[in-house]
C-alpha cells in the first residue's frame, strides 16, 4: 500500500526514511535525518510511502509549486529492489499529480545511475540537460529529467 506523509509521526518517519535512503543508495543517503525531518515539515512537500507487511520499504519525496512537481528523493530498501516498488511509487505520483492539474514533473539523477535513468525513461521522462558536479561524495554530474503530464497550461 502507498500512504502519504500525513499518516505518520514525522520524527519516526524521518528516521525510517534516512535508514532506507542510507542503505539503498550506493554512496549512502544524500540527506541527513535532520534534513528529512525539515522537509517533512514543509507544507509544499509530500511523500508517498510504500508499506509491505507493516514495514516501510520505500518512499518518494516531492515538492509542488503551482503546476510543477520536483521529485527530491526516491529510494527502496535493497531487499525489495527489482520488484517494481519504485515504479509503483512513480506511477502513483504521476496519477495523483495529473488529477491535481500538474503540468510537468522534474527530477535529477546521477549520471552513473543507469537503472534509475532507465526506469524514468520507461515512464516517459526525458533528459533536459546536465547539472555539473551536482552530487557530492563522490562528485558527479546529474541528468535533469522531466515528463509532461498535460500538453498545455492554458484552458
TrEMBL record:
N-acetyltransferase domain: residues covered: 1-150
Keyword presence, Cell division: no
EC number: 2.3.1.266
Pfam family, one: Acetyltransf_1
Subcellular location: Cytoplasm
InterPro entries in the record: AcTrfase_RimI/Ard1, Acyl_CoA_acyltransferase, GNAT_dom, YpeA/RimI_acetyltransf
Catalyzed chemical reaction(s): N-terminal L-alanyl-[ribosomal protein bS18] + acetyl-CoA = N-terminal N(alpha)-acetyl-L-alanyl-[ribosomal protein bS18] + CoA + H(+)
Entry keyword set: Acyltransferase, Cytoplasm, Ribonucleoprotein, Ribosomal protein, Transferase
Main localization (coarse): cytoplasm
Main EC class the enzyme belongs to: transferase
One GO location term (cellular component): ribosome
Primary role: Acetylates the N-terminal alanine of ribosomal protein bS18.
Stated family: Belongs to the acetyltransferase family. RimI subfamily.
NCBIfam families on file: rimI
This protein's name: [Ribosomal protein bS18]-alanine N-acetyltransferase
Organism: Candidatus Enterococcus courvalinii
